[in-house]
């Protein structure tokens, strides 16, 4: 008879920061804390239904080796107004282009207030709108680098590894 596997340790809590994705019909408001975004190539692992990073070393990239679709993602550290907490926001290429097109040129993103809406259906695109800019807002919490936290979420064996397409 099989025996129950007992736990001899209490597992440590998960990462403090979660990655925010918008569901259909959802609208959310954010203040950007990051001065700039973290842009990376990822793969969509359909089998495990999750995002995995694309490794700079493509010969050792599980996604490239298995021909998983390549997806661009841009990550920002933001305050999510409705939830009243800081999260990492994941932007699609389309949303990233909308932010780039509306943000003041050559200025940091930090202090921008944006809203993000997703239309009907799982494939509906994101609509990003820049509402206000408070570049001299001093009450904002410090920004956090998404890289170490997302790297931990993605279970990268080596956290110092560089991702393909990464802009340092
Ligand atoms: Zn890859």
Q: How are the secondary structure elements laid out?
A:
Layout: E1 19-20, E2 27-32, E3 38-45, E4 50-53, H1 62-65, E5 70-80, E6 85-91, H2 93-102, E7 112-118, E8 126-133, H3 146-153
Parallel strand pairs: 1-6
Antiparallel strand pairs: 2-5, 2-7, 3-4, 3-5, 5-6, 7-8
- Regions with little confidence, pLDDT below 50 for 5+ residues: none
Element string (H = helix, E = strand): EEEEHEEHEEH
> In angstroms, what is the radius of gyration?
18 Å
State the share of residues found in helices, binned by percent: 10-25%
What percent strand? 25-35%
In the CATH hierarchy, the architecture of the domain at 20-38 and 74-153 is Beta Barrel
Number of strands: 8
Largest sheet: 8 strands, mixed
**Distance between the first and last residues' Cα:** 54 Å
Question: Compounds present?
Answer: zinc ion
How many helices? The count is: 3
The overall pLDDT average reads 83
What is the CATH domain class of the domain at 20-38 and 74-153?
Answer: Mainly Beta
Query: Would you give the CATH topology of the domain at 20-38 and 74-153?
Result: OB fold (Dihydrolipoamide Acetyltransferase, E2P)
Q: How would you describe this structure in keywords?
A:
eight-stranded mixed beta sheet; 168 residues; globular; 13% helix; binds zinc ion; 8 strands; OB fold (Dihydrolipoamide Acetyltransferase, E2P); 3 helices; single chain; alpha+beta
